[in-house]
Amino acid sequence: ISFNAIDSALSSLKNCQSYIDSGMDVATQVALDLVESFNDEEDINSMEKVMLEYAAMDRELNQYIKAFEETINQVKREKPENLPDLENLAQEKFLEMESKNSDSDFESNEKYMYFKDQLKEMKKQYHANDTIEQIDEDIAVTRSQMNFICPITQMTMKRPVRNKVCGHSYEEDAILEMIQTQKQKKKKVRCPKMGCSHVDVKGSDLVPDEALKRVIDSQNKQ
């Protein structure tokens, strides 16, 4: 078996990653749709199971690729006279990695953690408003609208992004401009949300706040 053939096979495997990523994106949107349309908790939980299956597939794919890459590099380094059975060697490495798997691995899967975070936010936005509305509709509207205001622009957000570190949301363009301006001055950006102690907002920590955007959009339609 030639190294070129293996490289080609690995390249094909890496393409599978994009299918897994797309599947996870779709599952996230469907779960948020279910919360938004007040579907059964059972339906929402089934989407979480789908996401877990995708995360497990993602882990398995990455470990399989890593096992083969490590095997090839090892053989290239050692240059043995007789080429060993690469498939068997890679399989051994893969099984060794697999034996160390645990559920906590999924916490390093960004798409899975994003799903969990957005689902929690979506439930909080919708269910919190239900509870408040039973007390006083005016309070509910006022309180939810306060969450819609960007702490930088003081206007209703159109494209909110959420800070993974402190959990606060801002208008995407406004926070990115703030980061860029401070970067030029070689300064860090403190979270603009009043009372927040987070002093180093980075662009890499920002993710689209799909849950909040949906709530704002639905409020605007009313």
List keywords for this structure.
Herpes Virus-1, about 5% strand, Ubox_domain, mainly alpha, 7 helices, 2 domains, three-stranded antiparallel sheet, zinc ion binding, about 220 residues, globular, 3 strands
SSE topology:
Elements: H1 3-36, H2 41-78, H3 86-99, H4 110-135, H5 137-148, E1 160-163, E2 169-171, H6 172-184, E3 206-208, H7 210-221
Antiparallel strand pairs: 1-2, 1-3
Helix pairs in contact: 1-2, 1-4, 2-3, 2-4, 4-5, 4-7
What does this structure look like?
Its main location: nucleus. With about 220 residues, this protein is mostly helical. The chain folds into two domains: about 5-125, no CATH class; about 160-220, Zinc/RING finger domain, C3HC4 (zinc finger) (Herpes Virus-1, 2-Layer Sandwich), CATH 3.30.40. It is built from seven helices and three strands; from the N terminus they run αααααββαβα. It has helices at about 5-35, 40-80, 85-100, 110-135, 135-150, 170-185, 210-220; strands at about 160-165, 170, 205-210. The chain has a three-stranded antiparallel beta sheet. The longest helix is centred in the first third of the chain and has 38 residues, at about 40-80.
